[in-house]
Design goal:
The chain is mostly helical. The chain contains 5 helices and no strands.
Length: about 100
Amino acid sequence: MNSHTSSRPSPLLATLRAHWMSTAYLVVVAAVCVWVLIDQTLVSHADASFSGVWPVFLTAPVSLLLLVLPGDSPLGYAVCVALGAAVDAWLLRRLERAVAAPRR
């Protein structure tokens, strides 16, 4: 039996390795969002909790710009954070490419 296992990583894994900074940023944002969700649903607070502001701070300035749009719902908050994280990760990817590009 011949097993043709290649040592090349999958295209997704290769992309994640190539853009490690933006991937790490998205992992941190996701971890903070999970923490906020746990804090808001499972922990009882005598007063208001400010844990919900951390995802907005992590994804600023795009999420701050989107928060001024009308509508006050959890879905709108999630969209602001998700779009802010996506734009910031894209900018980090562009920065990685600019730094890694050979200088002429």
